[in-house]
Amino acid sequence: MAEVFVESLSIEQGLISDGDRDGWPFTVPCVAALARDGLDLRRPLTFLVGENGSGKSTLVEGIAEAFGLDARGGRAGRKYVNAREKTPLGKVMRLGLTREGARMQGGPRTRRRGYFLRAETTFGFAEVVSGLPGYWAEDLSAVSHGEGFAVIFRSMFREPGLYLMDEPEAALSFGSCLQLVALMHDLARGGGQVICATHSPILAATPDADIIEVGDFGLRRARWDELGIVDHWRRYLSEPAAYLRHLIDP
Ligand SMILES: Nc1ncnc2c1ncn2[C@@H]1O[C@H](COP(=O)(O)OP(=O)(O)O)[C@@H](O)[C@H]1O
Ligand SMILES: [Mg+2]
Fold first, then answer.
1. Distance in angstroms (rounded) separating the CA atoms of residues 229 and 225
2. Which of 70, 108, 114, 152 would suit a FRET pair with 18, their CA atoms being 20 to 30 Å apart?
3. Of the candidates 9, 21, 28, which has an alpha carbon nearest to the alpha carbon of residue 93?
């Protein structure tokens, strides 16, 4: 396997208080599955694929915090990240680190490399940090969302590090999604590790990725062509009316 930083995820059961155990997020099926079985990350590129509400963001935020990235998003190595209270999952998430991962996480903050891209909050955040040291020079309030993402991708996703993304497809056209596929593939091949929550069948088709489906069943490893979203998109594109007749009165 190419070098990655995080090779497994688990939950430190002893740290969950009795009061928390029966509430969010431990009742979300994917979090319960992680608590029970843990999860191996077998490749430099992992997709967490599932419907809205399946728990993808909850998982990615927990991973971010466990690695020392801010759950609100942004670059690794920033100051004050550890001063904020973590999410309930971030507090108990344990990462199995490779030697390289342990070196990066245990070393000085400024040696940490990576980025947490949250599509939901990226724009307010990105406009504020444009021009600040360590970010990009372009003024993102003056470009389209798709172009803004391209700036972030080009300037932030360059060196080996841990890259977390939460539905990065949200603002992207078909063509921009394809560019992101190429970029994630390059990043993974160049020594980076990418963990990406998505419901885009385009992104999930990136070659050589490990795909984990997230849903009521918890977590399961899947092939791209077995994914629920791929089946739905295929059927919708070939006959939209078959779906829409259930939703729209003639
Ligand atoms: N801060 C929170 N407090 C309580 N419930 C939450 C919180 N954040 C998310 N949830 C719930 O947890 C579940 C998973 O949410 P989320 O991780 O955002 O899903 P996804 O990212 O897959 O759409 C949903 O049922 C959501 O309503
Ligand atoms: Mg989400």
1. 9
2. 70
3. 9
Question: What is the dotted CATH code of the domain comprising 6-223?
Answer: 3.40.50
Helix (H) or strand (E) holding 188: helix 174-189
| Ligand 1 centroid from CA 56, angstroms | 8
d(C-alpha 121, C-alpha 118), whole Å? 6
- Residues counted in the chain: 250
pTM over 0.85: yes
Bridge-based pairing of strands 93-97 and 74-75 is: unpaired
Return the pLDDT at 1: 47
Question: Distance from the CA of 78 to the center of ligand 2, in angstroms?
Answer: 23
Residues with beta carbon inside 6 Å of ligand 1?
24-25, 28, 50, 52-58
Angstrom distance (rounded) from CA 73 to CA 118: 6
Cα 15 to ligand 1 centre (Å): 21
Ligand nearest to the CA of 20: 1
Sign of the alpha-carbon torsion through 180, 116, 163, 153:
positive
Handedness of CA 39, 194, 229, 235 (dihedral sign): negative
- What are the φ and ψ backbone dihedral angles of 32, each rounded to 5 degrees? -60, -40
> Helices 145-156 and 119-129: crossing angle, nearest 10°?
70
Domain-wise residue ranges, the chain:
6-223
Q: Which two tokens stand for residue 163?
A: 């890259």
Q: Chunk the chain into consecutive blocks of 10 residues (it has 250) and report each block's average pLDDT, rounded to whole numbers.
A: 84 88 94 97 96 95 90 72 80 95 84 81 65 75 74 80 91 88 92 96 97 97 96 96 89
The beta strands (E) that lie in the chain are given as 6-11, 39-40, 45-49, 74-75, 93-97, 114-118, 162-166, 193-198, 210-215, 218-221
